Write a sequence for this structure.
């Protein structure tokens, strides 16, 4: 069974990480279920040439962030994993504290309670102790914190190369087989 992967795009800089995750899933023929926060939609418009409709076209299923009755809000919905790319500090805080006031956080909470991989591409810098404490708390309840950090051993030539490498690492953490990235072979 080709279980879907849930993609959340929250209101932090780096909307391209969510976009490229959706593009990769489409290439891999893995169903993508998309949730975009209101601020995430605004950031998408600021940082890319894509419209919200363009973004939704990359997903198999989309949900309103306000729809707490959506399929992904239930543990009986079968999903392989969830990636929040980018993950704002606000979303990180809500996830770490199980404050499921919107569908993105509820889906993340369900992902954790069902013991499925939850990857959070936290986008903030510099970090203060409160941010670090939230990341530690989220990691302590089962989330994987994956700040989008470039790998220069791949000798990236474009921003897309840098973004795709982080997306590939996130998909690795979700158990998705792919050849999107150059693997380290040693020196």
């Amino acid at each position: 069974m080709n279980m879907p992967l849930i993609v959340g795009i929250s209101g932090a800089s780096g909307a391209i990480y969510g976009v490229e995750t959706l593009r990769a899933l489409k290439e891999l023929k893995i169903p993508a279920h998309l949730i975009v926060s209101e601020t995430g939609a605004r950031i998408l418009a600021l940082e890319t040439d894509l419209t919200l409709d363009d973004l939704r076209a990359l997903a198999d299923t989309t949900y309103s962030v306000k729809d707490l009755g959506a399929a992904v809000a239930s543990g009986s919905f079968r999903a392989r994993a969830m990636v929040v790319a980018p993950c704002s500090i606000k979303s990180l805080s809500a996830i770490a504290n199980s404050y499921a006031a919107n569908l993105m956080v509820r889906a993340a909470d369900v992902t954790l309670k069902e013991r499925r991989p939850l990857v959070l591409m936290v986008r903030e810098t510099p970090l203060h102790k409160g941010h670090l404490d939230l990341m530690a708390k989220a990691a302590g309840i089962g989330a994987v914190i994956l700040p989008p950090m470039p790998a220069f051993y791949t000798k990236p030539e474009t921003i897309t190369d840098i973004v795709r490498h982080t997306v590939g690492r996130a998909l690795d953490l979700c158990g998705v087989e792919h050849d999107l990235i150059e693997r380290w072979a040693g020196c």
User: Anything to note?
Assistant: The chain has seven helices and six strands. The CA atoms of residues 91 and 105 lie 7 Å apart. The mean pLDDT is 97.
